[in-house]
Structure formats: C-alpha cells, structure tokens
Amino acid sequence: MATEQLTPETTEQLTPEMQKQQEEEQPEVLAQAEPQGQEHAQQEAQQAGQPAGAGAALGGTLQQQIAQALQPVLRDIQQQMAQSVRQQMEQELEPVRQELHQQIDQALEPVQQELHQQVDQALEPVRQELQKQIQQALEPMRQELQKQVDQVLQQEVESAIGALFR
To answer: Domains in the chain: how many in total?
Structure first.
C-alpha cells in the first residue's frame, strides 16, 4: 500500500491512523496527490460522460449552496450586532440626553415664570369681573338673609323683653 496513489476512494477507506502513517511514509506522493487527484476527478468526469469542467461546476454549485445556507445565519448575526450597537449607543447617549433635558429645563425656567406672570396679569381683570358678578348675584340673597336674621333677632328681642315684663 506504500506505493499506491492516494485517491478520494482510497483515502475514504483508510482509518485516520492509516492516513497519518501514509502521510509520514510518502510526503512526496502526497505532494503529487493533489494534482493527480484533480486529474483523476477530471478523468472520472469524462468517463461518466461529463465535461472536464463539471467538477468545477459542482464546486461552484456547492459554494452557492453553502452561501445560501449561511445567509440566515449571517442575517441573524447582522441583526444581533445591530441590536447590540443600538443598545450600546442608547447606553452611551443616556447621560448626554439627561444632561440636555436638565439644561433645557434650566433654560426654560425663566420663560415659564414670565409666562405665569403674564397669564396671572391677563387673568386679573377676569377674576375681578367674576368676583363682581358673584357679589352682584349674591347681593339679593345676602339682603334676604339679613332681613330674615333681623326679623328673627327682633322677634327674640321682643320675646325677651316680653318675658322680662311679665
């Protein structure tokens, strides 16, 4: 077996130990095995009625199938990387975002105070008018209540005076 050429069929039949021994015994045969293996594959392809480039076409087809099989994996990796980058960016941007919110709040505070003053000033005439209308609406009730209180007090005074002179 030491003088045999390595072909795909013979290497498949060898155990890993035998392959290692073969490699150690015949390094020059191994160096020649690759070109001879390619020639052998081309010869087999020609014998099977396939053109000599069919092996290359099969290799291309295999590469295409591998590429198609890897696409979902690559897409998942790309999505995971994008998600990771987004998360890192969010983490890095959060302190900046908080600082900006604080600066905006500080910058808007005088504006808010000014607006509150303007609203209060604008509403003052409305408040005064409402108070006036409420007082006008309540005046007849106040007068009626005063009248009733006066009557009750007068009756009580008359009753008390009457009780004193009896």
So the answer is: 1
Give 56-89 pLDDT, tens digit per residue: 777 888 999 999 999 999 999 999 999 999 999 9
How far apart, in whole angstroms, are the C-alpha atoms of residue 81 and residue 106? Answer: 38
Residue 100 identity (one-letter amino acid) = L
Query: Which pair of tokens denotes residue 162?
Result: 């009457």
Q: Is residue 121 a part of any domain in this protein?
A: no
Which structural domain range is residue 24 located in?
A: 1-48
6-20, 65-79, 114-128, 132-146: range with lowest mean pLDDT: 6-20
Any domain includes 4: yes
Structural domain contains residue 10: yes
The answer to whether 6 and 37 are in contact (CB under 8 A) is: yes
Q: pTM for this structure?
A: 0.34
In a domain, 20, yes or no: yes
- Contact in structure between 10 and 4 (CB atoms under 8 Å): yes
Longest dimension (CA), the chain: 157
DSSP calls for 105-166: HHHHHHHHHHHHHHHHHHHHHHHHHHHHHHHHHHHHHHHHHHHHHHHHHHHHHHHHHHHH--
Name the residue among 159, 155, 137, 158 with its Cα closest to residue 147.
155
